[in-house]
Amino acid sequence: MSEQPNDPTRDDQSTPVHEPAAGTVHDDPGARVLNFRPRPVEQPGPAVVEGEIVDDTDVQHVAVDPPTGADVALPWRREVSRRPVVAPWLRSREDIAAAARWAAGWAWHSTGFHTVRAPLYAARLTARAPLGAVTAVAGAARWAGDAESRPLREQAIRSGEPDHYLRLTAARTERIAVRRRLLAAAVLGGAGALVALWTFAPPWLLAVLLLAGVLVLGWVGSPADKPVTGRSVVTHRPTRLTSEMVVRALGALGLGEMNKALSKGPNGITFPAPITRDGPGWRADVDLPFGVTVTDIVERRDRLASGLRRPLGCVWPEPAHDAHAGRLVLWVGDQDMSQARPRPWPLATHGEVDLFKPVPFGADQRGRSVSILLMFTGVLIGAMPRVGKTFALRVLLLACALDPTAQLRIFELKGTGDLSPMEGCAHRYASGADDATLELAMESLRELYAELNTRAKRIRELPRELCPENKVTPQISARRDLGLFPIVLAVDECQELFSHPDFKDEADRLATGIIKRGPAMGIILILATQRPDAKSLPTGVSANVGTRFCLRVMGQTENDMVLGTSAYKNGIRATTFTAKDKGIGYLVGAADEPQIVRSAYIDAPAAETIAARPGTARGRRHPVRPRRRRDDGADRRTVAVGARGRRGGVRPGRGPAVVRRHRRPAGRAVADHLHRHHPGDARRRPAPVRGRAQAGVGHRPADRRRAQPARLPPRRHHDRVGDRRTAAPHRHRR
To answer: Model-level pTM?
Structure first.
C-alpha cells in the first residue's frame, strides 16, 4: 500500500508522526518519518485567554477561584456590624417609659393580689403551725445529736476502718457536748423571756408576738411543693426562635428549589446574621436557596406560621430591600399583633402638631412608633369595609386639627357621622351621600383648585430670600398676611364622588390637579375609599399619591391600586391580612421601605375630647352644614363664626354669628382688632375683653352692668384665620 502524503488538515490523531532529529537530512522527498514518542493528552477544547483563542499546545490550567485568604481585607477596610454599647431600648424614651409603666403595674398588681388574699394566707399558716412546731423540735434534736455525721460513721464501719471510726466518734462527742449546752442556754433564755413578757408586756404586744410565732411555725411546716402564696402573674414564655426551627419551617413550604437545596444538606439555607431579640419578638435574617425569592415565602405565610407553630399574626416575613431578592427578614412576635394591647396615641392627652413635621400615626409589629409627614404629599387610605379605614383617617384628621394654623375641610360621604367629632374644629364639614353633600364637596374642590393659581402667584411674587425654593415653608405659613397656611381636604368614601354620573369627570380633573400641584403650596388631600378600583378611584389620583395605607383587601387589583403598581409582585400584599387584623395594614411612602403598621385606636368619645381641646378650635369656624329650606322658600346656609376658644372652642366675648348665603361672613372683627399687632399673636396674646358670648359680634360685661359699646374702626379684617381679607360692617350692642 502506498503512503499517503502528510495532510496538515487530517484529523487522524491515532497515527504517530516521527519528527526528524536536529541536523538530520533526508534526500528522499517522498519518505515519511514516523515519531513513536507518545503524544501529550490534549484538552477538550481550545483555551480562551482575554478573549483570544490560543494554540492547543499552550493550554495551561488556570485557577478560577482566588486562593484562600487572598481577598481578606485589612481590619479597618472590612465591613463590620458593631453591636451597640447601650441596648437600643435604653436609648428610647418610649421604651424606658413603657418599661417603667410595666414595672409599676406589676408591683401594683402583685401588691393588690397578695393583700386581698392575706387572710387566706394567715389561715393556711395557722393550720400548718402544729406541723411546723414538730418540725422545729425534730430539727433541734437532730442538730443537738449531730445527726449529719451519722453517714460518715456508718461508712467507716462498713469499710472496716476502726481508727477512722474512733476519730469520728471522739469529734462527735465534743460537738454534742457544746451543742447541748447551747441548746439548754437557749431554752432557759427563751423561757425567761416568755415569763418576762407575760408579766410586763401589754396585751397587744403579746398578741402580735403570738401571731408572729404562729406564722413562723406555719412557714416552717409548709411543704416545698405546696407554697403558702399563689402566683400573681403567670408568665407565658414564647418558644425561642432557632435556626433549626426556621429551616424546618421553610422546608415545609413545598417549594421545589427549597427542597432540592435542603436535600443536599442544611447548608442550602444560610443565616448572614445571628438570630437576635428585636422588640417583643425575634428577628432572623435568612439567605434563601438560589432561585427562591422572598415573594415565594410571603405568599405562603400561613404555611410558614404552621411550620413555626406560631399564630399567623405573629409571623411576618419581609424582603430586605437593601439586599438581594433572596434575603428574607423574618420577624416572629411573642404575641399576635391583633391581640396585643395598642399603644396609646402620644397626642391623646396633650401636645400640638406642626404639619411640617411628622405626626404620630401608629406602631409597627415590633411596637415602634410610626409617624407620617403630611405636608408636601397626598394620602390615600384603602380597604374593604369594617377593617379600620375610618379609624385610621380619624387619627390623621385629629393630628391636623391639633395644628392651630391648619384649615380643615372634611366631607364624610358615607353619611353615618363617623367623623363628626371633628365637626367643631373644621372649616367645612358635611356628612351624607346625597347630592347636596356632594355639591358641597365639589365646591371645596373648585375653591382649592382656584386657590392653586392664587397661591402660585403669591409664591412667585415672594422675595427670593424669603422663599428660595418656591414652596411653602414653616416661616411662610406662619405669616397670616401671606395666606399660605396649610389646608387639609379629607374625603371619606370618595368613591361616591368619583363614581357619581354628574360629578365624576370634574372631580377627577380637580382632584388630579390638586394632588399634583397642591403639596408644594401647602394643600393636603386625604382620600379614603372602600372600593379601590379604576372606576371609583381615578388613575390620575392614585398614581400621584405619595403616602398610601392599605388595610385588608381581597385581590391583587385592589392591592396595587392602593399601594402602587407591582406592589403585589414585590411581596407587599395586603391580601394576607385576616378579618381579625383590624387597623393593620401596609404603609408605603412614609419611610424608605414599606411598613406593617397598626393605626392608633381612638374611639368617638376620645376623639371628641381631643377635638374639644383649646388648641384645636383656635382660629377656626364651626362647620358649614348642608342647605335647608326656609318657610318662605329662600335658601340659607348657617355659618358659625367662632374664635380661638377656651373650654369648648369659644372665648368669652366672641360668639357665633349667623349670616345669610348671599353675604360674606362677618368674621373675627373683635379678635382681629385686639390682636392687630400680629396675626400670629392670636394664639398667644390673651384678649382683654371679658364677657359672656351671645349671638352676633360684640360683648357684654359679665356682671351685666350697662356698658358703652366697643367702638371699632371700620377696617379690613380676616373673616377668620386662614381666609382672605374682606370688608364687612360691624354692629354693636349694649
So the answer is: 0.60
Kindly state the cell numbers that stand for 117. 388574699
How far apart (Å, rounded) are the C-alpha atoms in residues 562 and 585? 11
For residues 468 and 476, give the distance between their C-alpha atoms in angstroms, rounded to a whole number. 11
pLDDT in tens, 199-214: 888 989 989 988 898 8
Please name which of 412, 443, 428, 408 lies closest in space to residue 639, comparing C-alpha atoms.
Answer: 428
Rounded to whole angstroms, the Cα distance separating 689 from 674 reads: 9
| 48 phi/psi in degrees, rounded to 5 | -120, 120
Q: What is the DSSP string of 517-534?
A: HSGGGTEEEEEEES--ST
Burial 327-357 (b: 16+ CB within 10 A, else e): bbbbbbbbeebbebeebebebeeeeebbbbe
Burial of 717 (0-12, 13-18, 19+ CB in 10 A): buried
Q: Strand, coil or helix: what is 548?
A: strand
- Dihedral angle at the C-alpha atoms of 111, 117, 120, 122, nearest 10 degrees? 20
DSSP string, 665-688: ----HHHHHHTTT-GGGGGTSPPS
Cell (9 digits) for 63: 485557577
| Whole-number pLDDT of residue 320 | 85
| Inter-residue contact 563 to 588 (CB < 8 Å) | yes
Give, in order, the Cα–Cα distances in Å from 131 to each of 116, 123, 216. 26, 14, 11
For 133-170, b where at least 16 C-beta lie within 10 A, e where not — what string?
A: beeeeeeeeeebebeeeeeeeeebeeeeeeeebeebee
User: 598 is written with which cell numbers?
Assistant: 397598626
Convert the pLDDT of each residue in 417-463 to its tens digit.
Answer: 899 998 888 999 999 989 999 999 999 999 999 999 999 999 988 88
